[in-house]
Design brief:
Radius of gyration of chain B: 23 Å
Structural class of chain A: mainly alpha
CATH superfamily of the largest domain in chain B: P-loop containing nucleotide triphosphate hydrolases
Distance between the termini of chain B: 35 Å
Shape of chain B: globular
Largest sheet of chain A: none
Number of strands of chain B: 21
Oligomer: heterodimer
Order of helices and strands of chain A: HHHHHHHHHH
Helix content of chain B: 10-25%
Number of domains of chain B: 2
CATH class of the largest domain in chain B: Alpha Beta
CATH architecture of the largest domain in chain B: 3-Layer(aba) Sandwich
Shape of chain A: globular
Mean pLDDT of chain A: 91
Largest interface: A-B, 22 and 30 residues
Number of helices of chain A: 10
Helix content of chain A: over 70%
Strand content of chain A: under 5%
Chain lengths: 254, 351
């Protein structure tokens, strides 16, 4: 539970301190500024990226890939997870496979997908899809299977079976765990997308960082990293807000 | 009207269980945990697999799915849907059956009124008290107007006075709605207050069936005695008729007046909750046996004190509710022990 009034201040102070220390370390010129620019210069680089429109177009490219890949992957993953969890035989059949695939990091698919898909928009979307699809099947399966058996039994006596049971009992009951899974997987989606863009794409935040590296612009690299971190954080906050709202409504949180 | 016939049911927890529950009867299944009570209930509900046959009103229901059996089911943890508010919880079964919104609203309203929970309609289950959750679970089970109600220790986690109130409410509701009910519990008091008849279950088998008194007092089967937890079964070494319907039995040095209606008395059983302890001798000797005894120990249990008293070299056990403010007995104290004649059950040689 978050006690916003009390802890928000501490969180703000913590973040502010981090940036101030960064600024001081940069200004003290422990290392040359082109290797370790202070926070203010990073912000300046961010500003100039923004006004040239470079940031906007590349950010939009990354955001689109993340949104498409994440919604396709998690949507299908949750759906499949629910159906597999309902059916005992398919649960026994697929659970070991899902568990095996769950252990594979999403970026491990990059070389394979470059061969299968090629260097086009399909590539980052496929990688992000894999990085949310398999984990969301796994998370949905385990959360449905850990529901109280008596809740499922009562629902059955009341006439819930098949898709009725899945959508009126499994999904809403497992939703809090599914949402906290989504929170983690949204972060994974941003990270994986960044990596794909670094190695194989001609647009996106990852490309911006790689281009900056070739001309030795550390300030731009740091600015891109800041944007990536902030986007990731924003996504997590969205899912957390939904989760907390739901848990409060149901009385799990005060 | 439904009569439930259970014929020779077996599975992983049940061993050839047969039981008949009459129309509108409240049958209590009494037994220790692990006896298979819940599994039996789940079999009747169609929620677990079994061999054998179950009939409602003479028609086998073995191939019917749980929702086709027309039952109301209240499990031990109540299993309210935490994602739905009270109204939606109760409406769940009606919604699954595809009734119109208007009809659902009306039927849910009626049931909420009946159970006095209308003011809770918009609340979520986790924000309700134990007793309120209880009523919602019962409302959800009866809103479909089932013919059979199955309840699995539903009052377990509630305090004593609330349990008592809910038991009374349940009994009234069951009469009003003519529900044939199977109620599972391990609590003797619950069984005594609720049951039309009691079935005692031990290790996957039904050991005996009868009214509460028949099962509790007239059963010499040691397995059943253990379940019923009545320790005051004394064997007798002689008896004589003192009056029409009254006999004096000798149990060791103890002489006890008991009701008598024929047969050779071999033992007596005294319900622990019927024994009265007092500190001063009461002035008269009425329809009870009076002894002087010494308290050996006082054991604190869930809601009761268990007191062991020695009288005439024999040991008997008494139960007192913890809520009794007059209870001040301690080990080592001398007390008077009053055993009402009418509550002493005799075990005769034929049984």
């Amino acid at each position: 539970m978050r006690l916003y009034s009390k802890y928000l201040r501490i969180e703000l102070i913590s973040v502010a301190t981090f940036f101030i220390l960064w600024e001081l370390a940069g200004q003290l010129s422990i290392a040359p500024k082109y290797l370790f620019p202070p926070f203010s210069e990073t912000l300046r680089a961010l500003y100039s990226l923004a006004i040239t429109g470079e940031l906007g177009s590349n950010y939009l490219a990354t955001l689109t890939r993340v949104l498409i890949g994440l919604s396709l992957g998690s949507g299908l993953g949750i759906l499949l997870g629910l159906v597999i969890a309902y059916h005992e035989l398919s649960y026994r059949t697929f659970f070991p496979i899902v568990t095996l695939l769950y252990a594979v990091p999403a970026v491990a698919w990059i070389p394979l997908f470059i061969i299968w898909i090629g260097l086009n928009e399909g590539l980052p979307i496929a990688v992000i899809f894999m990085c949310s699809f398999v984990p969301m099947i796994y998370i949905t399966l385990t959360s449905v299977r850990s529901l109280s058996p008596s809740v499922v039994r009562v629902a059955q006596t009341l006439g819930a079976h098949g898709f009725k049971l899945i959508f009126h009992v499994f999904l809403p009951q497992a939703l809090p765990s599914i949402l906290s899974g989504l929170k983690v997987e949204a972060g994974m989606a941003w990270r994986s997308c960044f990596v794909v863009e670094m190695v194989a794409m001609s647009s996106g935040l990852g490309l911006l960082a790689m281009e900056a590296q070739t001309i030795l612009r550390v300030d731009i690299i740091l600015a891109v990293i800041l944007i990536l971190a902030a986007s990731n954080y924003a996504f997590q906050m969205i899912f957390e807000k939904i989760e907390v709202k739901m848990l409060k409504e149901r009385g799990y949180l005060k | 009207m439904p009569k439930i016939e259970i014929h020779d049911i077996s599975n992983y927890a049940l061993n050839r269980v047969s039981l008949e529950v009459n129309d509108r009867e409240l049958m209590v299944i009494l037994g220790p945990s692990g006896a298979g009570k819940t599994t039996l209930l789940n079999a009747v509900a169609g929620l677990t697999e079994y061999e054998g046959s179950i009939l409602f009103d003479g028609a086998p229901v073995d191939n019917l799915k749980p929702h086709e059996r027309n039952i109301g089911y209240v499990p031990q943890d109540l299993a309210l849907f935490n994602h739905l508010n009270v109204r939606e919880n109760i409406a769940f079964g009606l919604k699954m059956r595809g009734l119109s919104e208007a009809e659902i609203f009306e039927r849910v309203d009626n049931v909420m009124e009946m159970l006095n929970i209308k003011h809770l309609a918009d609340r979520y289950p986790l924000k309700l008290s134990g007793g309120e959750q209880q009523r919602v679970a019962i409302a959800r089970a009866i809103v479909l107007e089932p013919k059979v109600l199955l309840m699995d220790e539903p009052f377990n986690n509630l305090d004593t006075s609330l349990r008592k109130r809910l038991r009374m409410e349940l009994k009234m509701l069951q009469r009003k709605l003519n529900l044939t009910t199977i109620f599972v519990t391990h609590d003797l008091i619950e069984a005594e207050e609720l049951a039309d008849r009691v079935a005692v279950m031990v290790k996957g088998r039904i050991e005996c069936v009868g009214t509460f008194d028949e099962v509790l007092y007239n059963n010499a089967d040691p397995a059943v005695r253990e379940v019923l937890g009545n320790p005051n079964v004394l064997s007798c070494n002689g008896f004589k008729l003192v009056h029409e319907g009254l006999a004096e039995v000798k149990c060791g040095k103890l002489r006890l007046l008991v009701p008598y209606d024929g047969g050779a008395i071999i033992g007596v059983s005294i319900p622990p909750e019927k024994i009265v302890l007092t500190k001063g001798e009461l002035g008269f000797k009425g329809k009870f046996n009076l002894f002087k005894g010494v308290i050996k120990d006082v054991i604190e249990e869930d809601v009761m004190y268990k007191i062991r008293v020695e009288i005439e070299g024999l040991e008997v056990q008494c139960l007192r509710s913890k809520s009794d403010p007059q209870f001040t007995f301690k080990a080592g104290e001398s007390v008077y022990v009053k055993i009402p004649i009418k509550y002493v059950r005799v075990l005769t040689a034929t049984e």
